[in-house]
Design goal:
35% helix, 346 residues, alpha/beta, seven-stranded mixed beta sheet, single chain, 7 strands
């Protein structure tokens, strides 16, 4: 999944920095802005016990599948062939015109071009069938979330977008014309009882403790809720009334203070002040809306700070190239990784 702030390309850098800073190689690792679950899954495979959190439902489902689940369940009530059989039945479901088709396909009521007509109809049929199976008590929570996650990934793969769902493309990208297909997710087992939570990070931080807190907060003014609204719709399947040219959900209760210049510093300061872990790791790049001097001021009040940096290419959508202005003209961004040994006297 192409995702704002996704750290997949930086995982080795993060791990190498942890080793250099001599942090513990086991214990509880908290990922409180979990996103797609890439960081949590990586450190799950390093044998940490993971506590992962995100406020968005599609992120919660991704983390539930990749982090909480250690073993693929049987799916015995819907298929004699387990998960592969369940996915095969969903993939062969007869397409139908429904909520996704009417709101996000060119031949639908709203004439939007997020999905081809056929893929939109397939999404409608598959998502309704998954929900019906759950309502008929044919799926456990683990089984339900695996199927929804598989659909979200499949839909994202064929979406006619350049990176986010803030807008659709007027010309069809080649991947968007491929047939939607659900696939088995990569589920790994670390033999630990990993946890997933869906809560505001600043509220959750007051209730949890552990060895390492990893922070990857939103760093620019692009709110996640409107930029990934279709994924949220597929996750919650509430079929709410949509508004605007791009068919937005009501996201008034999903806005992040970390994407607001007027509130980000205060939110970050509150988060750090209420942290109860032995170490804090903060990922933040040089184009973030919180200035580096403010970050260091806040972190230095919590303990001893070490800083590591690496260059990488920024997240761009096709719309960015002409419309957005960056601090640097090229695509290079500097990722700052701050590692804090917490002073328990503070």
């Amino acid at each position: 999944m192409k995702y704002i702030g996704n750290k997949t390309r930086l995982l080795n850098f993060i791990n190498e920095s942890i080793i250099k800073a001599k942090l513990p190689q086991n214990g509880t690792f908290i990922d409180i802005f979990g996103g797609t679950g890439s960081v949590g899954k990586y450190f799950k495979n390093k044998k940490y016990k993971i506590i992962a959190n995100d406020f968005m439902t599609y992120s919660y489902i991704a983390q539930y599948v990749l982090i909480k689940i250690n073993k693929i369940p049987s799916f015995e009530k819907v298929s004699l062939s387990g998960l592969s059989g369940a996915l095969q039945e969903l993939n062969s479901t007869t397409p139908k015109s429904g909520y996704i088709f009417n709101n996000f396909a060119p031949s639908g009521i709203e004439k939007r071009q997020y999905f081809s007509d056929n893929n939109a109809r397939k999404i409608d049929a598959i998502r309704d069938k998954i929900e019906n199976w759950r309502n008929d008590k044919l799926l456990s929570d683990d089984e339900y979330y695996i199927l929804v996650y598989s659909l979200i990934n499949a839909a994202d793969f064929v979406a006619n977008i350049s990176g986010t769902y803030g807008a659709y493309l007027k010309i069809w990208r080649s991947m968007a014309l491929k047939d939607l297909e659900l696939k088995i997710p990569d589920i790994t087992n670390n033999d630990l009882e990993n946890e997933v939570v869906q809560e505001d990070a600043n509220s959750l931080i007051k209730k949890i403790s552990g060895d390492i807190l990893y922070l990857d907060p939103p760093y620019n003014e692009r709110q996640y809720a409107p930029n990934f609204h279709i994924l949220e719709t597929l996750a919650v399947w509430d079929k709410q009334k949509l508004v605007g040219k791009t068919g937005q959900r009501d996201y008034s209760k999903k806005k992040s203070a970390y994407s607001q210049k007027t509130n980000s510093i205060k939110a970050f300061e509150d988060l750090i002040a209420n942290t109860n872990t032995n170490y804090i790791i903060l990922s933040y790049n040089n184009e973030g809306i919180i200035p580096r001097d403010e970050i260091l001021r806040i972190l230095n009040n919590k303990g001893k700070v070490s800083e590591y940096t690496t260059d990488y290419r920024r997240f761009r959508t096709e719309r960015d190239h002409k419309r957005r202005h960056y601090k640097q003209c090229d695509d290079k961004v500097v990722e700052h990784l701050y590692i804090i040994k917490v002073d328990k006297k503070n």
